[in-house]
Each structure stands twice: as C-alpha cells, then as structure tokens.
Automatic annotation (TrEMBL):
Organism the protein comes from: Micromonas pusilla (strain CCMP1545)
Family, similarity comment: Belongs to the glutaredoxin family. CGFS subfamily.
The keyword Transferase appears for this protein: no
Protein name per Swiss-Prot or TrEMBL: Predicted protein
NCBIfam families: Grx4 family monothiol glutaredoxin
High-level lineage: Eukaryota, Viridiplantae, Chlorophyta, Mamiellophyceae, Mamiellales
Gene Ontology terms: cellular component: cytosol; nucleus
C-alpha cells in the first residue's frame, strides 16, 4: 500500500478500525525538512510490506490526535495493531524506523535496504548549540553510554562488551546511538577529548572507553563508581525538590509572574502547540519565563496532577493556571490575554 494521508482524528481512527489493521503513522510538519526524508523511507517501507498501512498526519493540523499520542516533536512515529498503540519513535532516525517496522511487522526486502541507507537522510533538526546539546545528552540520566547501535542491538564488538559490563553492575543506564547522529558522533570526541567509541559517562563526567570500563568491571570498581553516581543524582534530585515534588512544582509555577511550561524553549519550541502559545504570549509584550518539560520527567508528569490539566503547554500567572493552548489562543484572539498578563505583572 502507498503512503496515505489522514487529515483528521476520525480518518486516522478509521484506519485503525479496519479488521487486522497494522498501521505506522508519521506525524509531520511542513516546516521540518527531515520529515520529507522520512516520508521517502516510509514509501520504501510501504512497498516492502503491502499488508501494513503507512499513514501521514500533519501534527499541527490535527491537534487532538497529536495530543492523544503525546507528540512532542516531529518527525514522530506511532505503531499500531488495530486500536492499540504498541510503540512510538521520535526523531529522524532512518535505521531505527526501519528496525521498528521490521521488529513489529516483519518487513524485509526494500525495508532492509532502507535500514542501511546513509544517515544523511536522517539528519536531526536540532538547532541548539552543539556543546549545550552534548552537555544535555551526557547528563540525561546519571549513567549514559554513547555507543554504536542500541542496548538491544549493539553494532560493534566493543559496544557489545561495554553494554554487557555495565549491565552486569545492575545500575540503570541509558544509551545513545552515535551512528544515528553525525554531529554528536564527531562533536563528542572533542567535547570529551576522547577519540573513540563507546564512551561511558556518569553524572556528565567521562568514565572512559572500552578498555577502561572493562578493566574497572574486572576489578570491581565499575559497579562502585556507577552506584555512587546514581546515588549522587538521587540526592541532587531530592535537594532540588526538597524531597517533595508538589513543593517544587509550587515554587516553579511562581518562579516568574508569568510562567509557560512547554516542550522546548522560547527560542526553540519542540511542538506546534508550544510554538503557538509562545507567539501569543510574546505578542502581548508581557515578560514571561519558560520551563522545558522535556528536560524533567518528574515535572512533566507531576504538573499534570498538580494543575489537573492533562496536556502541554500550560500557562501560569502568579502561580495560577491560565490554561492550555486552546484557552490561551482564544484569550489572545479576544484581547483578554494581554490584559490578564499585564495585570499579573502590575500586581
């Protein structure tokens, strides 16, 4: 089956409602260049597996559907068996997309060729400075392994050995596939002053490469070092939140008279809804702060309960919830947003 467009939640639901439906959905945006490259891959995958429906949904035109599947950036892919969503994938990663399709739906042939396609077709759309991005990536979890391939599918023997060694410690860790991002692959060598991969980090500090990690695993110091890193991160989290997430959230929503909790930053929104609200609030001329909920999973999940509001973005004035995207845009349209926010700052 060729690539099909679902222009509404109803059309997408109809695809899922068919008997024995197998569906891969690409949430895209016209302004995102990598989405076009991923569409080309989707067409190849569709040709290789006629029993699977490959669909496109314009994320900003189908807000309700994007919110339903928590689309935080584009390109974004969801995988379905009937009405059940079985997996999701964020980012322009050609190998990962082809691998997930193969994993869930047994695609071969053209899809296998697509999986080994040059990574240029899957260049990321990140616009933040590379050093800032590398700092964020090396601290995304207390222990991070930069490797070739994934935790389940290492792409070289050195990466496989380090995965096994770190896994044997019993300490939780995340991984980043440097084959999926050439900027990270080259930039991290300079950032760490370490020329090879894999590279293991603990609390943002380089532990070492394959030889060092294996030596530490052999003498028992690896588990101790990673356990210390995990404990230090847990202590830092407790200190930041005073051991009480609600107290931390209360402080965050009042940290500026006007606060926007969004996906991404003011200069680099990571979803269309956040972009629209940034533009609407910015147009009022009222100063406001922002918090990137993608940077902190505790805040991202906890604020939904704290505010009794299930989606993002969320706009606050003097610690009180103003509303989400629809309410903010409606207030911007009728002129009441500027009035309300200006009154907040004046108070």
């Amino acid at each position: 089956m060729s690539l099909v467009d679902a222009r509404s939640a109803a059309e997408h639901d109809a695809l899922l409602a068919r008997p024995n439906a197998l569906v891969v959905t690409h949430f895209w945006a016209s302004w995102c260049e990598p989405c076009g490259a991923m569409d080309a891959l989707m067409r190849e995958l569709a040709a290789a597996r006629p029993a699977v429906t490959f669909a496109r949904v314009e994320a900003e035109a189908c807000d309700d559907l994007a919110e339903r599947y928590d689309v935080s950036a584009v390109p974004f892919f969801t995988f379905h068996r009937g009405a059940e969503k079985i997996d999701a994938l964020e980012g322009a990663d050609a190998r990962a997309l082809a691998g997930r399709v193969r994993q869930h739906f047994g695609v071969g042939g053209a899809a296998a060729a697509a999986a080994s396609a040059p990574a240029a077709a899957a260049a990321p759309a990140a616009a933040e400075p590379l050093d800032a991005r590398l700092k964020r990536l090396t601290t995304q979890t207390p222990v991070v392994l930069f490797m070739k391939g994934t935790l389940d599918e290492p792409r070289c023997g050195f990466s496989r050995k380090v995965v096994d060694a770190v896994g044997a410690t019993g300490i939780a860790f995340s991984t980043f596939d440097i084959l999926s991002d050439e900027d990270v692959r080259q930039g991290l060598k300079e950032y760490s002053n370490w020329p090879t991969y894999p590279q293991l980090y603990a609390n943002g500090e380089l532990v070492g490469g394959c030889d060092i990690v294996l030596e530490m695993a052999s003498d028992g110091s690896l588990k101790e070092a990673l356990a210390d890193a995990a404990a230090a991160a847990a202590d830092a989290d407790a200190d930041a939140g005073g051991g009480d997430l609600n107290a931390r959230l209360a402080a965050l929503v009042k940290s500026e008279p006007v606060m926007l909790f969004m996906k991404g930053t003011r200069d680099e929104p990571r979803c269309g809804f956040s972009r629209k609200v940034v533009d609407a609030v910015g147009a009022t001329g009222v100063p406001f702060g922002t918090f990137d909920i993608l940077s902190d999973e505790d805040v991202r999940q906890g604020l939904k309960e704290y505010s009794n509001w299930p989606t993002y973005p969320q706009l606050y004035a003097n610690g009180e919830l103003v509303g989400g995207c629809d309410i903010v845009l409606e207030m911007a349209s009728d002129g009441s947003l500027k009035e309300a926010l200006a009154a907040t700052v004046a108070a």
